[in-house]
Amino acid sequence: MELLGLDWIGWIFSVVSGIALVLGILITALHWASEATREHARKRVLEDIVLFAIWVLGLAGGIGVLHGMGWSRPVLELFCWTLMILLVMSSWSRFREMPRPRNMRALQMALFVMPVVALCIATIVTLRSETAFRMLSG
């Protein structure tokens, strides 16, 4: 069962991951440029490197799907699983930190998290389809 087109998957994950990497680089540069935030940036170097690595997985997987590479299926699936898990964990953590009442915050998070999770699930289902196996076999 193919829910999404492979070309669309390749483009959306390549573009979104590329934008995330560029924004991450710009934000990191701003943190390192300011003396006030430099100490905070030093404490978060490992977290930032891991986050960049995750987005590089998404970029590589998207480009691999566009080029029909066999390794792109597991790479993009790993990226989707990682993105879903981190997004849900981060949202839950932020939700718990908010003061009560949290109803509006829960709605805002659900409106952001649910489409991303749905896109990732549809991507995983598509990548496991017969068409994807045939097109991304080499």
Which terms summarize this structure?
138 residues; mainly alpha; 6 helices; flat
Structure report:
With 138 residues, the chain is mainly alpha-helical. The protein is built from six helices and no strands. The chain has helices at residues 6-33, 35-43, 45-67, 72-97, 103-127, 130-135. Helix 1 packs across helix 2 (35-43). The longest helix has 28 residues, at 6-33. The two termini are 21 Å apart.
| Alpha-beta classification | mainly alpha
Helix content: over 70%
Spans where pLDDT lies below 50 across 5 or more residues? none
Distance between the termini: 21 Å
Largest sheet: none
Q: Please trace the helix and strand order, writing H or E for each element.
A: HHHHHH
Give a count of the beta strands, DSSP E runs of length 2 or more.
0
Helix segment tally:
6
Mean pLDDT: 88
Radius of gyration: 17 Å
The proportion of strand residues reads under 5%
Shape: flat
Secondary-structure topology with pairs:
Layout: H1 6-33, H2 35-43, H3 45-67, H4 72-97, H5 103-127, H6 130-135
Give the structure's gist in a few sentences:
Helices cover about 85% and strands about 0% of the residues.
